[in-house]
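step=encode ok
step=design start
structure_in=
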């Protein structure tokens, strides 16, 4: 082999490795994954940390927004996982809670924390149509898992009672967070927003309360 062919071979090999690492990065940075993958991850306890202390601030902000903005209201929690938000809500803070999640195993754990005012269902929130209206609809770390987050939120707005609010939590490092957040803010009025930064872990979240009435709801 000539020196020129060796160099060309080395260059191609290097480019191949670089492309492979790019694809690998793309595969691991998103949570747009199948129901089976969620099932497998819940089965291995991968998401159990969501009920731990280091996630408490995020849930507390969402629970606080519910209690302050819609005390005793009805709540729909899309992508509710193992039902941690219900566990963080004071009993007097809501009259009815419905949690839906793609993962049947997560829902099975959530059911263990259910009460006579709560219901958990295994369903795909990109297809599910609520049978009733809610005062609060929560998208807690789920929009980064959806194909078309803005369209999904827009579809759920129809299931809000007049004056109802949307609560969104987005991990700042999540897939498309900036784009999703700015799309939401263009479409809906921001009622309040906080950014939570965990000092110990390199993670931060933006929790936003939005109201659809002031805007057209078009995204
Ligand atoms: C990052 S976890 C967040 C869970 C929970 N909301 C929390 O904050 O602890 C994302 C959740 O969204 C669920 N999920 C993903 N895609 C979904 C979909 N299309 N419909 C309903 N749930 C979905 C997953 O099963 C998972 O429980």
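sequence_out=
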């Amino acid at each position: 082999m000539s020196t020129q062919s060796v160099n060309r071979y080395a260059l191609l090999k290097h480019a191949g490795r670089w492309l492979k690492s790019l694809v690998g990065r793309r595969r691991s940075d998103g949570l747009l994954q199948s129901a089976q993958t969620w099932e497998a991850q819940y089965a291995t306890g991968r998401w159990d940390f969501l009920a731990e202390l280091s996630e408490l601030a995020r849930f507390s902000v969402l629970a606080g927004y519910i209690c302050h903005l819609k005390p005793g209201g009805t709540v729909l929690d899309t992508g509710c996982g193992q039902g941690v938000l219900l566990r963080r809500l004071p009993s007097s803070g809501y009259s009815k809670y419905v949690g839906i999640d793609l993962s049947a195993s997560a829902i099975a754990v959530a059911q263990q924390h259910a009460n006579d005012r709560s219901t958990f269902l295994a369903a795909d929130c990109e297809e599910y149509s609520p049978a009733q209206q809610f005062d609060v609809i929560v998208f807690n770390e789920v929009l980064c898992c959806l194909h078309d987050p803005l369209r999904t939120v827009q579809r759920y707005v129809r299931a809000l009672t007049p004056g109802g609010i949307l609560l969104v939590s987005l991990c700042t490092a999540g897939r498309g967070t900036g784009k999703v957040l700015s799309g939401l803010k263009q479409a809906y009025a921001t009622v309040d927003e906080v950014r939570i930064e965990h000092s110990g872990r390199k993670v931060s979240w933006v929790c936003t309360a939005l109201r659809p009435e002031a805007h057209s709801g078009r995204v």
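step=design ok
step=annotate ok -> The beta strands are 73-78, 94-101, 118-122, 134-140, 160-171, 189-198, 203-211.
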